[in-house]
Amino acid sequence: MTDENTGSLGDLPIPDLRHLHSLGLPRHPRLDAMHFHNDPKSRVPRAAPCLNDSYYVLCEARYALIEGFNQVRKYRANEPPDEWHAAFFGQFYGADVALRLYAAGEHLANAIVEMLGIDRSALKNCRSDSRSSLQAILAKFLASNFPRHPIFAAVRKLGESKDWQQSMNYRNDWVHEQAPQVRGLGIQFKRDEEYWREGRDSGGTWHEIGFGGQGRPDLPVDDLLEFVGRAACAFTEALTAIAANYKEQVLAHPPK
Question: How many angstroms separate the CA atoms of 100 and 169, rounded?
Fold first, then answer.
């Protein structure tokens, strides 16, 4: 039987949450607030519920990752292998991981805003468009205002992760455009496909349309689960670093 705390399941990267457990997540914000009896208006304890939300959503993403792997393995074990169901359920859970990681990132961004006491109105200048996420806005703000802070180091490392970038691009396409098509699901069509083909001959211009082909799927389901799995591991590392910084801030203020 596989131990789910080892950080791996077969060849699939699975985030190891034991370090987060050792940091006391989920945190109790009222107990943490008692450390700030000399500064009752401190916003640091307000980060605790945000960290908790990020942690809980990460746990859900981890479950979805494991379930996606198990579904693919189960259907491929059939005789003959059932690749359609393997691709369908692998895509379902892989997309779920990407969506939850985005949400976990937003919760973590809110935690950082509270930990650093950032004026939210100051973040408006870092918005590039109406759809900018808080995590993207905050990363830009931290680069300008907290370039040497250990929290920014964790944020920057996550943002530079190719797997994180690919997972967030997948999520953005899934929500706003058309997600990359997974192989094994049968006939699929891309939105930007040109249906008519134009040509010229001695008789003039002609147009034809074909029905025998289809758009080539972009993504093996194995690749989807692998890059969202590695992204989950990268996010776990970032959350661990930031939760450790939060714990340091709390312990720096002895309770009354």
Answer: 13
pTM of this prediction?
A: 0.86
> Each residue of 183-212: pLDDT tens digit?
877 766 666 666 667 777 776 776 666 555
| pLDDT (tens digit per residue) in 215-229 | 555 789 999 999 999
Residue 196 belongs to a domain: no
Is there a contact between 124 and 141 (Cβ–Cβ < 8 Å)? no
CB atoms within 10 A of CB 102: 21
Whether residue 79 lies inside any domain: the answer is yes
Domain count, the chain: 1
Vertex 227 angle, CA 82 and 144, to 5°: 155
Contact present, 72 and 89 (Cβ < 8 Å)? yes
Instruction: Copy the structure tokens of residue 132.
Output: 């900018």
Q: Residue 32: which domain range?
A: 17-186+214-251
Give the DSSP letter string of 180-206: PPBTTS-----TT---EEEEEETTEEE
Q: Specify if 49 maps to a domain.
A: yes
Question: Quick check: is 209 in a domain?
Answer: no
